[in-house]
Design goal:
The complex is a heterodimer of chains A (390) and B (493).
Chain A (H helix, E strand, L loop, with lengths): L3 H8 L7 H14 L14 H5 L18 E6 L2 E2 L8 E4 L11 H9 L5 E4 L7 E6 L4 E9 L4 E8 L4 E10 L4 E8 L3 E10 L4 E8 L4 E10 L5 E10 L4 E10 L5 E10 L4 E10 L7 E10 L5 E10 L5 E10 L2 H9 L4 H17 L5 H19 L6
Parallel strand pairs in A: 1-5, 4-6, 5-7, 6-8, 7-9, 8-10, 9-11, 10-12, 11-13, 12-14, 13-15, 14-16, 15-17, 16-18, 17-19
Antiparallel strand pairs in A: 1-2, 3-4
Helix pairs in contact in A: 2-4, 5-6, 6-7
Chain B lengths: L1 H16 L16 E3 L6 H10 L4 H16 L22 E3 L14 H9 L16 E7 L2 E5 L2 H6 L3 E4 H7 L1 H7 L10 H9 L4 E5 L8 E7 L10 E6 L4 E9 L6 E4 L2 E6 L4 E8 L11 E12 L5 E8 L4 E4 L2 E4 L5 E10 L4 E4 L2 E4 L5 E10 L4 E10 L7 E10 L5 E10 L5 E10 L2 H9 L4 H17 L4 H14 L6
Parallel strand pairs in B: 3-7, 6-8, 7-9, 8-11, 9-12, 10-13, 11-13, 12-14, 13-15, 13-16, 14-17, 15-18, 16-19, 17-20, 18-21, 19-21, 20-22, 21-23, 22-24
Antiparallel strand pairs in B: 1-2, 3-4, 5-6
The chains are: A alpha/beta (390), B alpha/beta (493).
Chain lengths: 390, 493
């Protein structure tokens, strides 16, 4: 991604939409370039350095097939076949060259090759799995709209070894409910999700990062009407020099909205976890309840955790809190398990799995939760060279 | 004790109840002849201040270097505060009472009008007037750009304690000043510290020799009197091996429609086994209810636990200033050293506060504790900004942070911005933060027990601050409790 201009010139013949608008978005992006650590939101994530790092994480096939999902596979940036089901309307990708004061989104506006444009209504019986695979640099722009009272489970299954700049625009109609599950196992990804909630809408995201030289997951949640509820949970299993960054802005623009955020990081070797969460409660957005929890388990010298849970409050009748705890594996717990006859590896396995389980337990669909548990078990076992006790 | 407590509570209640009463009782001006230099900042001004103080060449060079660096720096804009751009060429950097020209040798020779100012402020500058049963407090009184006098110097000297104005320290103890000045806050540390390093005019200096427990509380009282003048003082406190000192700092200014700049630097150095307890009651003029006037309080305070088992504790009660930008910090360099930060920051009307701390864990088994209580009322904005950083070599580092914000009214704002950075496996860092209003249940409960609404609010707010108030020296705690009440005047009920 180092020379965006020549890359743009090379692929522009295949890009849809207004090429002039794309070119101006590119110019806006190039004028500032990729974010640097001098920008507050990127203080802990040095994009240029991380993009230069190779990624050697293995990608395990997650067995979503058993869940009989609707599949939308993006192979090197192109949708293979549009999924088809009752209550799901997929439209052809349409580019819009909107530019904002954000280089990441401008690069996306300039270079987005494809994306899933879907409208969901009613209760979608099957999970919709969006898989990103391949090893090329890709820019994707997905637009997902949930009609009022729609219910769906969406999976963002990131299996690419390349560089991905993915944007998700998600709008939830009144009373709609969305569970968004994201998995990143490898590669370099800068992902931006814009999630808008109408009255009484509910969104729950569960993100698992088990690898990747750069995993930046940014989510901007906006409550536009009362009664909305958002949950954002993330788990990181960091090994090698993995870098996982969860950056949220949760903007309570409406009264009587609630949010609950948790981040669980297990950091081994020289991996680094970053959590930046900002809760904004706007003036007159009374009766907001916003909770935020960050936990990190440090397993090795050289690992690093940086947390910045922010509150920005302009209304008084609110209950907002955040908590953060960083420490190593609990020696007492380890001793307890060893005293019960478990070997060191199994004991560590159990403690780490139990830690991550606090995120997995937020998944309502048991079959889905088990599928992800299997992936986590595999990853932890590989990391600690022990057999899973599950 | 419980009687004392009852009277403290009563005082607070009285103060809170006194709506529409006197808002800022320190807002008077002392009419006095002053020696004031023309407005503006240049190399010549820096040279002038240095010459006025008859400073050695090395210190002038140090100032000039700071000035050169300051010129290349930008004013920080990351804080959650908003104020019109300061014209640094439109400020006066040195103002001193004319009567100080003569160089009074003792307090008896100081202009009585100056002494009266301090007695009006409730600061005792007469050594003999110490009442039986009241602990002695030595005071260094700074008036605009000069120190007017330091009490109990001889008595302190018996124990080898040096306590004097900064200017005197430069003349009498140049080796200590040279060794420690800028060793905690380098001259180019930040924009305001660089400005201070170039133009600082006076301040307090304190050195506690090895093994000495300072026999009395030391304090500095800062008073800005002259209009359109900035105050740039520098405080340097050194506790040698095994020494202990408790240091208090207070500040006030007249009520004026213009904004005045206060850019101070405080450096603390604690050597092996030494302990410094630094308490501040900051009550600069906060401006009126529409945000007109008030002090811009842009202060750099930092303590260095330079050697093993050193301990530095910051306690602050921030009630004044139009804009506060202040982060008393600890560098925990020595193994097993301890840093503490206890803060109450109250903002009312249009005040803006961006305050917090930094705990930098460098040594092994270092620990730190942060308790911050922010109270916003009126249309004010109150932000806690803090950093806890554990260096890769700081094995066994431990931090506990609690920052709570209380909102009174629906037009104020409260923010919490903690940076938690762990680079060591064995670090244990805990952080908790909450934001809420005074609970209706608590108010109801108190009223149901017969308290009127004002009493109930005072009780709840004082309870909210309790964890911090109890870390203040007794004399200060009483004053601080009253201040909590006064600062919230007109915001409840």
């Amino acid at each position: 991604m180092l020379d965006a201009q020549s890359y743009f010139d090379r692929i522009s013949g295949d890009l849809s939409g207004d090429i002039a608008a794309r070119a101006s978005a590119l110019a806006a992006a190039e004028a500032v370039g990729l974010p640097t650590r001098r920008q507050e939101a990127w203080h802990y994530t040095d994009v240029a350095r991380l993009l230069g790092k190779p990624t050697d994480d293995t990608i395990e096939g997650v067995d979503f097939a058993a869940l009989n999902p609707l599949m939308a596979v993006f192979d090197n940036g192109r949708l293979e076949a549009a999924p088809n089901a009752q209550g799901l309307t997929v439209s052809p990708f349409q580019h819009d060259g909107a530019t904002a004061n954000n280089a990441v989104l401008n690069y996306n506006a300039a270079l987005a090759q494809d994306g899933l444009v879907a409208e969901l209504s009613g209760a979608l019986a099957q999970p919709l799995v969006v898989t990103t695979q391949g090893d090329e640099s890709v820019h994707l722009h997905h637009k997902i709209i949930l009609a009022p009272d729609a219910k769906a489970v969406l999976v963002d299954n990131h299996m690419s070894q390349g560089y991905t700049n993915a944007r998700f625009d998600i709008a939830l109609g009144a009373g709609a409910e969305l569970t968004l599950i994201r998995v990143q196992q490898a590669g370099h990804q800068i992902g931006t999700s814009q999630i808008k909630l109408s009255e009484n809408a509910q969104v729950k995201t569960i993100a698992l990062v088990t690898g990747g030289a750069l995993a930046r997951h940014e989510a901007n949640v906006e409550f536009t009407a009362r009664g909305g509820h958002a949950e954002l949970h993330s788990a990181v299993l960091g090994r090698g020099e993995n870098h996982a960054d969860f950056t949220y802005v949760i903007d309570h623009k409406a009264a009587e909205t609630t949010s609950n955020t948790s981040a669980y990081n297990v950091l081994d070797a020289a991996s680094r976890g970053v959590f930046q969460g900002k809760v904004i409660v706007r003036k007159d957005a009374q009766h907001v309840d916003a909770q935020m929890q960050t936990r990190a388990m440090m397993l090795s010298e050289g690992a690093e955790m940086d947390a910045k849970p922010e509150l920005e409050i302009y209304a008084d009748d609110v209950a907002c809190a955040h908590g953060s705890a960083i420490g190593e594996l609990d020696r007492d717990a380890l001793f307890f398990l060893r005293s019960r006859g478990l070997d060191e590896g199994s004991a560590r396995y159990l403690l780490v799995a139990g830690f991550i389980e606090q995120v997995l337990s937020h998944i309502d669909d048991e079959a889905m939760a088990d599928t992800l548990r299997a992936l986590i078990a595999q990853k932890i076992s590989a990391q600690f060279s022990v057999e899973g006790a599950a | 004790m419980s009687e004392a407590k009852a009277s403290i509570d009563k005082d607070t209640v009285d103060q809170v109840a006194k709506f529409g009463g006197e808002h800022y009782k320190y807002g008077f001006t002392t009419e006095i002849d002053v020696d004031k230099i023309p407005n503006g900042l240049s190399e010549d001004i820096v040279r002038f201040i240095s010459a006025k103080k008859e400073e050695p060449q090395w210190l002038l060079d140090w100032r000039l270097d700071a000035y050169e660096r300051w010129k290349t720096m930008d004013e920080p804009d990351w804080a959650h505060v908003d104020y019109p751009k300061i014209n640094y060429q439109d400020l006066c950097y040195y103002a001193a009472p004319k009567s100080m020209e003569a160089g009074p040798k003792s307090l008896d020779e100081v202009d009585p009008q100056l002494l009266e100012t301090y007695s009006k402020l409730g600061i005792p500058l007469q050594e003999q007037e110490v009442l039986a049963g009241v602990k002695k407090i030595a005071v260094d009184a700074v008036f605009d750009s000069v120190s007017v006098g330091t009490t109990f110097r001889e008595e302190l000297a018996k124990d080898g304690v040096i306590f004097c104005s900064f200017s005197e320290a430069v003349q009498e103890h140049p080796e200590l000043v040279k060794k420690y000045l800028g060793s905690v806050v380098p001259k180019s540390d930040n924009y305001f510290a660089a400005l201070n390093s170039a133009v600082f005019s006076d301040g307090s200096f304190c050195y506690i020799p090895p093994g000495v427990k300072c026999p009395m509380e030391l304090s500095t009282y800062f008073r800005i009197n002259e209009a359109n003048t900035g105050q740039f003082e520098r405080t340097l406190v050194i506790a040698d091996k095994g020494a202990y000192v408790s240091y208090l700092e207070g500040c006030t200014a007249p009520m004026r429609d213009e904004n005045q700049l206060h850019a101070a630097v405080v450096e603390l150095v604690a050597l092996e086994d030494a302990e410094i307890k630094y308490s501040t009651v900051q009550n600069w003029y906060p401006g009126d209810e529409n945000g007109k006037g008030g002090i811009y309080n842009f202060v750099t305070k930092r303590g260095d636990c330079r050697e093993a088992r050193a301990r530095i504790s910051w306690t602050q009660v921030e009630t004044g200033s139009a804009v506060t930008w202040k982060y008393p910090s600890c560098i925990l360099r020595g193994d097993d050293s301890v840093g503490e930060f206890y803060s109450i920051a109250i903002s009312n009307n249009m005040q803006q506060v961006d305050s917090g701390t930094k705990m930098l864990h460098l040594g092994k088994n270092t620990s730190s504790r942060i308790i911050s209580k922010g109270i916003s009322a009126g249309r004010s904005s109150n932000a806690y900004r803090g950093q806890v950083n554990v260096h890769p070599k700081a094995a066994g580092a431990r931090n506990f942070t609690q920052c709570d914000s209380l909102l009174i009214g629906d037009k104020c704002a409260a923010h919490t911005v903690p940076y938690i950075e762990a680079k060591n496996l064995s670090a244990v860092l805990e952080h908790e933060a909450t934001t809420s209003k005074i609970s209706d249940d608590q108010l109801f409960f108190c009223q149901q027990r017969g308290l009127d609404p004002e009493e109930a609010v005072a009780l709840i707010v004082n309870g909210f601050c309790r964890d911090v108030l109890q870390h203040l020296p007794m004399e200060f705690a009483v004053e601080a409790q009253k201040l909590v009440g006064i600062s919230l005047e007109g915001s409840v009920g």
